[in-house]
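Example A, followed by Example B.
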Amino acid sequence: MPSLKTDVTVAAMVELQGRFLVVEERIRGRLVINQPAGHVEDRESLLAAVIRESREETAWRFEPQSLLGVYHWRNPDNGVTTLRFAFRGQVSDHRPQQQLDHPVVRTLWLTPAELQARANSLRSPLVLRCVDDWLAGKSLPLNAVADLDLETARHLQTVEI
């Protein structure tokens, strides 16, 4: 049986005056819209990853306030499976002179209607699903995401199943 490989990613959800912070990025020669998002690096916590990715892709400092949701999606075009942790939060400390991380072209603030009108330009269905969940008021406390280091995990191994 083949092994399951899943990309673990984080995404930042920010809304200001009815508009959501998104990035326009060039993926395989095509401009697409996505939330500020990216892969979790080795030994990086989910919260550290979403703060880092947001700064790199938008030049804003993201402050996570809650967990919006966890999304499992398999891309039918290439078979890649993604496990996305999306966080609700706010931004501050904008650095407009900062160069944005490749492949981001620019940041935008778009309404849900503008995102829906660009449905064919969205990087994945996760973009609108996260907006829908935001608008539905979905939210979990940040401690819903446990970050266990090796020492903590050793203590948990004493429990028998």
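Example B, a separate protein, is given below in the same form.
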Amino acid sequence: MSQSNVDLVRRVHEALNTRDERALPELFDPEFVWVQNPNAPDPRTFHGHDGIRELVATVDDAFDEVRLEPAELIEVGDRVVVLGQMKARGKGSGIPIEEDRAWIWTVRDGKVVRHETYADHPSALEAAGLKAEDSA
């Protein structure tokens, strides 16, 4: 696989962090599936472009600020494993949240077709068939 999958995932994180809804058709396949972390405010699975917009709206209802900050991107076949942090501030409470998160993005034909959120790095690495020592 090429660096283009990693570049695409970097663009996805930037678009989500800046809420660039115009980027959705360019980055996400129309049949896209987002499998949310079971501990998320709304842990269901979201589908397609409408689903990603609904997810963003749900997150924005729960938090004043949210950033998905990738620290390490590891390409594994058609998937990119991202190890990083979610930084947020609770809506109304103003309570800051900084938690390790990991994401697995599956890419096909230059678009993201699937996303899975993990509450910790080891779980994502295991799901991708990697071990903790496989990350730098």
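On Example B: Residues 3-18 form the longest helix (16 residues).
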